[in-house]
Amino acid sequence: MESKARNTVLNTTEIVEAVLVHVDPKTVLLARRVCAKWNDLISNSPSIQQHLFFRPIPGTTPVVLNPMLAKAFPPFFRRPAPAGSDYEVSAPSKRFKPEVWARQIQEMFSFSRTPPELGVQTQEETYDEAPDVHPHFTPDDLKSLPLAQGRLNAAFRYEGATWRAMLPCQPPPTSFICLEKVESMGGTGQYFRRIAENGDVALDDDGEVPKDKKDLGPGPPVRMETLFHLVTGGWGDKNGWIWIWATRGSQTPIPKDVGFSVIDEARREVMKRAVQRDGLCLIESSVTQCTGPPGPWAFDNKFRVKPPYNQSW
User: Fold this and answer.
1) Which superkingdom, per the lineage (predicted)?
2) Model's pTM, two decimal places?
3) What does the alpha-carbon distance between residue 36 and residue 15 come to, in Å, rounded to a whole number?
4) Which residues contact 81 (CB under 8 A, 6 or more apart)?
5) Looking at the predicted structure, is the pLDDT value of residue 239 above 80?
6) Which residues partner with 196 through β-bridges?
7) pLDDT value at position 45?
8) Which residues pair with 143 in a beta bridge?
């Protein structure tokens, strides 16, 4: 009698569905192996698909990060400094004071002093002790991840891998802002662009689409594959990336500076609004060499899931 009652429950779609939306997502994914009926239910139930971060949940920030992706790709989901704080990014623990660095560069190119003399005379004021509150995500951060190891790497690169179609958070963004910081011998530039599943568009300094550019318009939700390819599929001499998630809503802090460059208050305000609206934003920091065209970013091929983006050289 007990077995009959149990079978009745397990074969009642509504009951199984109501139970599975309260089970951790990884277990639910494995439950697809139980039988064809469960696989069909898990693959087609709107509520279960939302629970598994495959289908969007309408809503507003603060966002809920995908726990499976956060465990598999921790560099993408590092938490920022405490809510409400203005913080500075430093990697390593000692960093150049931005104003000192700018003055040194100016003096070096004025040929008023040689670089060795400059280093000696300004050593005491060059470095600013600061905690490593939110370091860059760099290519080296991938090397210790399970996805880089043996058989796991083959499963990770599989075109039908589950992680590719997953939403990084709920509710998911349909697009988000990236602040690209480029440093070179010729100077420093900071540029906004909006990233979406169907492409990207350059923005003005206010984070708006210029009149001569075509707005991307509403599109599908951004998937994890897009975030991963954005980091690993590019060209140039990239130093790192910082993902900022609106896990605390309007209190999400934006860094004051990255590397040697100060992010001015106007740009920080643009990014604060963007995080509140989209749920995340990205800071991409790079140093561009002046010796020739850039090659693919310094990621080993075992980390790439698509060929590098087309480049304009």
Assistant:
1) Eukaryota
2) 0.78
3) 17
4) 87, 133, 134, 253
5) no
6) 175, 199
7) 92
8) none
Q: Which residues, at least 6 apart from 96, have a Cβ–Cβ distance to it below 8 Å?
A: 126, 127, 128, 260
Phi, psi values for residue 32, rounded to 5°: -65, -20
Looking at the fold, whether 123 and 258 belong to one and the same domain comes out as no
Task: Answer yes or no: do 269 and 173 share one domain.
Answer: yes
Residue 139 lies in a domain: yes
Tell me the pLDDT tens digit for each residue of 90-102.
443 445 555 665 6
Query: Distance (Å, rounded) from C-alpha 299 to C-alpha 138?
Result: 9
Query: Which position has the higher pLDDT, 282 or 14?
Result: 282
Angle between the 36-44 and 13-20 helix axes, to the nearest 10 degrees?
60
Number of CB atoms found within 10 A of residue 266's CB: 10
Q: What DSSP state is assigned to residue 53?
A: T
Residues 238 and 280 in one domain: yes
Work out the burial of residue 302: count CB atoms within 10 Å of its CB; fewer than 13 is exposed, 13-18 middle, 19 or more buried.
middle
Q: What domain range is 18 assigned to?
A: 2-52
DSSP state for residue 235 in the 8-state scheme: B
